[in-house]
Amino acid sequence: MDLGLKDKVAIVGGASMGIGYGIARQLAADGARVAITARREAGLAKAAETLRSETGAEILPVQADCRRAEDCARVIDTVVRAFGGIDILVNNDGAPPLGTLVSFDDAAWAKAVEQNLMYVVRMARETVPHLQARGGGSILNITAISAIQPIAGFGLSAARWGGVIGYAKTLSLEVAKDNINVNTICPGYIETQRLEKVFAAGGEDPAVMRRQLETEVPMGRIGTVEDISGLVALLVSPRGRYITGTTIQVDGGLLRGVR
């Protein structure tokens, strides 16, 4: 299916590895011109080179620390100057440390707010005028299943991502008239380095932990990055433009609640 992404300009955060890389690869393969960001320049440069080789697409690496307001502004300015505008923003970044809520001091909370909430706020604020100038576009946020189904030990990220969900829903109401859709995806257990950290933090045999997680998922398997990237491509494409203000779990049936 042609999603109409050819020559669209997309920014994908945290794209040197994991879910961010998979999203960038999917959008590039569908014909988009993709700017990728990450904190570590060496990994970002390698990812850009691989993406160009795999897709033949135009890839622009922009090193940035999403926790810094000036870096968020610089990313937008760099992409607009290089590509002439923006059509798609995918906010994605790593999660804060695991641990009990009472173990985190104010500094840890402040860092989490900057990384997972203010990053989204700043990137969206800088991007919306450019989407309006193009006659519409898409903003999509990547969070986690823990934001809508709390998991012990994941509270720091869940609290901040809960804020992202509320922010995104409100923003979707405010920019709908501009033909801009805003959505949030909550991945479940996905095969990434983040999941490896979960295994390590558990203090058990990783193979045993993997089997335990697989038994929790009705589909009986850990998800893949491709399980996420395909939905992202639809939601940020012209074919998905009427879908807005949603929070969608991609979790193999893990979420038990009825909403």
Top keywords for this entry?
259 residues; alpha/beta; 8 helices
**How many structural domains in the coordinates?**
2
Helix content: 40-55%
Rg is 18 Å
**Which structural class should the secondary elements be placed in?**
alpha/beta
Q: If helices are DSSP runs of H or I spanning 4 or more residues, what is the number of helices? A: 8
Return residue spans where pLDDT drops below 50 for at least 5 consecutive residues. none
Query: In sequence order, what are the helices and strands, one letter per element?
Result: EHEHEHEHEHEHHHE
**Largest sheet data:** 7 strands, parallel
Could you name the CATH topology of the largest domain? Rossmann fold
CATH architectural type of the largest domain:
3-Layer(aba) Sandwich
What is the CATH class of the largest domain? Answer: Alpha Beta
Q: Name the average pLDDT.
A: 93
Separation, N- and C-terminal Cα atoms:
30 Å
Percent strand equals 5-15%
The CATH homologous superfamily of the largest domain is called: NAD(P)-binding Rossmann-like Domain
Strand order of the largest sheet: 3-2-1-4-5-6-7
Describe it.
This protein has 259 residues and is of the alpha/beta class. It has two domains: 9-188 and 224-248, 3-Layer(aba) Sandwich (Rossmann fold), CATH 3.40.50.720; 191-222, no CATH class. It contains eight helices and seven strands; from the N terminus they run βαβαβαβαβαβαααβ. It has a seven-stranded parallel beta sheet with strand order 3-2-1-4-5-6-7, with helices on both faces. α5 (155-175) links the parallel β5 and β6. It starts with 8 loop residues before the first strand and ends in a 9-residue tail after the last strand.
